[in-house]
Amino acid sequence: MMGWEESSPLLSQQDTAGPEQPPTRNCLPTANVPRTSLWENQKGAWGWRCCPVSKHKAWREDQASSLPLPTGSNCVKYLVFLSNFIFSLPALLALAAGLWGLAVKRSQGSSWGGPLPTDPMLVLVLGGLVVSVVSLSGCLGALCENSCLLHCYSGAVLFCLALEALAGTLVVTLWNPLQDSLKYILHEAITHYWDDPDLHFLLDQVQQGLQCCGAVSYQDWQQNLYFNCSSPGVQACSLPASCCINPQEDGAVVNTQCGLGALHLDQDAAGQVVYLQGCWPALQEWLRGNIGPIGGCAIAVVMIQGSELLLAACLLRALAVHKVAEDIEPGPL
Could you tell me the pTM of the whole model? Predict the structure, then answer.
């Protein structure tokens, strides 16, 4: 018996140490626990004990992922996203077309300056860029539930509405000076017809669309150095093909010489070949006949923008309420 006790020193040490003490709060059992799991548990215990906010923050992140927006707010969110996505497509198309036009003009060696106050392609680029940026900010703000982007989008739409209201007021109050300005622009376009390809294209489209020739009458083309009857060129006393009543002459290709010598003819003979009415009277007549559709389109645009602004405001309010609900939600005991 003495020999067995002498050969078992561990048993004697355990007996002399007294009863086994229970594990304390800071002592974690280490038996049969992997080292990685033990370290993670100890790190979490230290983090909660030394920084109680981290425990609450982790709980709030879990709660944030488990508290989605209400169904109605989700509908508003995706409606804002879809409408702005639809508006961004033509804006991006206009931006691409404007950049392509500028690149083509640049490759042909065309100068930036000209008779027009601004380059039409540059106007197309700037308009497409502004509309696409505003629409994409609304798309991303709604999809990502980003309040900052939604505030920027709402401010941009509100600014556009203010500009449209100001433009409408100026058109109504300054209608007579605007008419004189439009008439002057038509005369300038006739004078510089061959000086700028964009001006050439725009004036041809106006004359073909309104079925007119010149500003007040077809004789206004005498102001152009190339079409003036005193010009030594081959186009003297002639008119552009866009003034002709039948420029194709029953063919597939436009006859660019259909107005040759039309200014030499008397009024009755010229009326068989070209349009005699000027574009300014035709434009006034077109405006009087289409004032209803023009006003309806303007009202529709304003209503669409107002609806977008209202939807963005509703979504911002829903996001604010959702954030407040997350902040005041009580934590787990």
Answer: 0.67
